[in-house]
Amino acid sequence: MQNYQANIHTLKEKVILVTGAGDGIGRVAAINFAKHGATVILLGKTVDKLECVYDEIVALGGAKPAIVPLDLQGASKQNYRDLASTIENEFGRLDGLLNNAGILGSLGPLEFFCVSTFEKIMKVNVTAQAVLTKYMFPILRKSDNASVIFTSSSVGRKGRAHWGAYAISKFAVEGMMQTWADEVEKTNIRVNCINPGATLTKMRDSAYPGEDKTTLATPESLMPTYLYMMSDDSVDKNGQSVDAQ
Ligand code: NDP
User: Fold this and answer.
1) With bands split at pLDDT 50, 70 and 90, how would you rate the model's confidence at 233?
2) Type and span of the H or E element at 90
3) Which of 46, 201, 220, when mutated, tests ligand 1's pocket best, judged by the most ligand atoms within 8 Å of its CB?
4) Ligand 1 atom 35: the closest Cα is on which residue?
5) Domain spanning 15-243 has what CATH number?
6) How many CB atoms lie within 10 A of CB 78?
7) Residue 156 CB less than 6 A away from ligand 1
8) Residue 37 near ligand 1, beta carbon < 6 Å
9) If you measure from the C-alpha of residue 186 to the centroid of ligand 1, how many angstroms do you get, rounded to a whole number?
């Protein structure tokens, strides 16, 4: 799937919600989904960044996106309910959900972790994604083929010293994906994970500030996998954790 060549109409008429759409991998995924025909719903924390992505998509001739400013740290059940009913009223259904937004927190030995940072990481990386997915489920059921993608990490598959709450949150994401996937088996919804691998973004820079950036994959280079997993070409995939590199 890393070599997948998407047709320009691969995502035509699909309505796709991307979290963390203002920056990094989410930004590039949202633009690529729009380039391939989707109407994208851009959810993120910083409105200015979402507006830049909106302008970029419109300038490329993509379908007019929707912007949802929402801080997943403080979002309430009512925020998610309102979002689901707005999407239902506007589009009638949801065909794709990319749970991409995430935070790294601070790295260091578990023995000394900061409890409030731990809770923040779990809220954004795990709880918010579970709750968002739960409230999107009724409108995902209205799609012919809906794809839900969670964002994993290598440190969510094998524990690594000093990756603390971030690593624990990504293990939880893998488990959440498998649990959803088992429940939706043989329905119109499929649920999978993508592990982007080391990618040149602000998050990577904060984890490894001194590294040689030229060795890193760009968000753009991951897009064949993101397009494949969001397209109907992956309808038979469910419960898998795939690598984008
Ligand atoms: P970035 O830090 O570049 O982007 C993260 C995005 O998430 C931003 O758009 C940010 O919005 C948004 N976000 C963060 N907190 C919140 C919040 N509370 N509410 C709403 N949106 C929020 O990260 P990446 O693009 O690198 O990471 C994307 C995903 O890929 C993450 O889940 C990460 O864990 C995962 N990943 C990344 C790897 C890498 O090497 N880059 C490797 C493995 C996994 P804003 O800019 O407004 O703060």
Assistant:
1) very high
2) helix 77-91
3) 201
4) 151
5) 3.40.50.720
6) 9
7) no
8) no
9) 31
Q: Is 105 in the pocket of ligand 1 (CB under 6 A)?
A: no
Give the 3-state secondary structure of residue 18. strand
Model confidence, pTM: 0.98
ipTM: 0.99
Average pLDDT, the chain: 97
Write the CA distances from 45 to 75, 106, 112, integer angstroms: 11, 20, 29
Q: Establish whether residue 45 lines the binding site of ligand 1, counting it when its CB lies within 6 angstroms of any ligand atom.
A: yes
Residue with tokens 């119109």: 188
pLDDT of residue 142: 98
* 56 vs 239: CA distance, rounded Å: 33
- Which positions are catalytic? 166
Q: Where are the domains of the chain?
A: 15-243
What confidence category does residue 14 fall into, taking pLDDT thresholds of 50, 70 and 90?
very high
